Every structure is written in structure tokens, then in C-alpha cells.
Amino acid sequence: MGLSERTRVPRPIKVAGLVGLVGIAATGCTTEEVLRFGWPDGVTPQADSMRLLWTWSVIAALAVGVLVWGLIFWSVAFHRKKSEQLPRQFQYNLPLEIVYTAVPFVMVVVLFYFTATTQNYVLAEEQDPDETVNVVGFQWNWEFNYPGYQTPDGQQVRTVGSSSEIPLLVLPTDRTIQYNLSSTDVIHSFFVPEFNFKRDTFPYPEKNNQDNTFSNTIDQEGSFVGRCAELCGTYHSMMNFEVRALSPDKFDRYMQLRTQNNPATGAPYTAAEALQNMNCGELCSPRAVTGVPFDTDRTSGEASGGQ
């Protein structure tokens, strides 16, 4: 038998390799998408931290899987039954038992450490955030108010969704934002997929012993759809809102308008009117993402009235 015949790769392995290459190529995924292993792309440092944990957890799991599969195939290929004589036994091999007990323990400890570290970072809250927004859920819409800003009539700047207008939550990029969550009726859930984070909004959270705040920083401008992620009644599926992330200078201009009266109406600027007045392209369009909501009565509940 010649050297080429001894080293020739078996046909099944060739076919398996070809199928694997075709499968990878057919997905059309970029390198960055492949390394995310299905994790959604986020727009906050907290989301990036979770993605990093997910990526390395999957890589570690694949490495363990390859090792286990390799040992299985090695045992099948090289330790097949050859006679009636029992092979060498290892059930009382103390060093081996220590190894396969200690290695999984170390793996669990390492995974726990990085999971706890990431969780602490994601849930950490700044003592003195740059901006604060109160998020109020009600059947079946949202209210957003900014306790640090007041309209000329002395009320907090706020936006309340209605059956004719999807509420806009306008936020700055590159600033720490604290969200205070509550509900006026039933349990809702504040969820922005691009944040890779959601949290329930409870009525009377102080009586439910629930953490009703969280913080993050948005690191890029954009328009993102927000949703209620807790089944809350008839029009739960239509309880959407939009996050409009603006650069700090645009956000300051937006808030400057929101704290003034609109000369055309004599009333404080609404979120849509302020964005239109800024004239900064599609990002300042009141309907950049979701458009006009469904024509349903989504306001059977009541907003907080800015309280």
C-alpha cells in the first residue's frame, strides 16, 4: 500500500466537511454575526457586555463539546471489543476521579464568576445619573416624563401615548440615564430589544418589594421600537412606543423646545412638534419607525398625570 493510499481522507469525512462549508457559506452571515452566535445586536455598553459573556460561553461550551465528542469517537474507534478478556479497569483510579471532579467544578466557578460580574455591571445604577425619566405603563399605552425639566406652566415635561399617536421616548446618547418604572393598573413590562434588557412595571412597586429602576447609556443615535413584554389585556400587542436616541446637542435642543410654548398653539411643544421644529432629518421625524398606530381604543386606562 502506497503512502498516498494510507493518508487518503475517507469519502464520508470529505462529504461532511463539504456540507459544513456549504452550510456556513449559505447563511450569508458576516464574521461579526457568526461570533455573536445568534445574540441580537445592542446599542448600549451593557448589551455589549452581555454579548461578550454569551460569545465566550458558547465558545467554551463548543470546546467542551469537541473534547467530549473526541473522547467518545476515540473510545469507539480504538477500544472496540477484541476478545472476551476484560480491558483494564479505571473505576478505582483516584487521580482520574479527582481530575474529572475538579475540572467541572473549576468550569462552573469560572462561568459563575463572569456571569455574576456581567450581571452586576448590567444592573449597576449611578448615584448621580445625567438624565432621569419616569416610565409609566397603563392599559394600553405609555407615559414618559422628565422630572428634571418643566414646561412654562410648571408641569413636568411629559409625553403620553394615545390611540392616534405612538409615544416617543427621546433620550440622549453618551449620557447615563436612569429609568424609574411604574404602572397605574396591572403589570406591564418595559422592553426595548436593542437594549437587550426588559423589566416589569408594577403598580405600587414599593409595596411589591420589586426593583423598579435601572440605568444604561446609549452609544449610538437611532430609532428603536419599544414594546410591552407582559401580557396585560386586550390591546397588549399594540402597546408599543419609540425610543429616539439623539446626540447630546440635539437632545439639549429638544428639551429646550419642550420647556417652551409653541407660538403656533400657545401650549408647550409636544414631542412630535419639538422634533419637527428641530429639522434634523429622518431621525427627527415623528414617525421614523412604527408609523401610525392601529385605530383602537388604547386609552381605557389612565396615565399618571405627571405625578
From TrEMBL:
Residues 128-257 form the Cytochrome oxidase subunit II copper A binding domain. It is an enzyme of class 7 (translocase). It is a multi-pass membrane protein. PROSITE patterns: COX2, COX2_CUA, PROKAR_LIPOPROTEIN. It holds the Pfam family COX2_TM. It catalyses: 4 Fe(II)-[cytochrome c] + O2 + 8 H(+)(in) = 4 Fe(III)-[cytochrome c] + 2 H2O + 4 H(+)(out). GO terms for molecular function: copper ion binding; cytochrome-c oxidase activity; oxidoreductase activity. Its cofactor is Cu cation. Binds a copper A center. Its main location: membrane. One of its GO terms (cellular component) is plasma membrane. GO terms for biological process: ATP synthesis coupled electron transport. Its EC number is 7.1.1.9. The keyword Metal-binding applies. The chain crosses the membrane at residues 55-77, 98-116. Keywords: Copper, Electron transport, Membrane, Metal-binding, Respiratory chain, Translocase, Transmembrane, Transmembrane helix, Transport. It is found in: Cell membrane; Membrane. Subunits I and II form the functional core of the enzyme complex. Electrons originating in cytochrome c are transferred via heme a and Cu(A) to the binuclear center formed by heme a3 and Cu(B). PANTHER family: CYTOCHROME C OXIDASE SUBUNIT 2 (PTHR22888:SF9), CYTOCHROME C OXIDASE, SUBUNIT II (PTHR22888). Belongs to the cytochrome c oxidase subunit 2 family. This is Cytochrome c oxidase subunit 2. It comes from Allosaccharopolyspora coralli. The lineage of its organism: Bacteria, Bacillati, Actinomycetota, Actinomycetes, Pseudonocardiales.
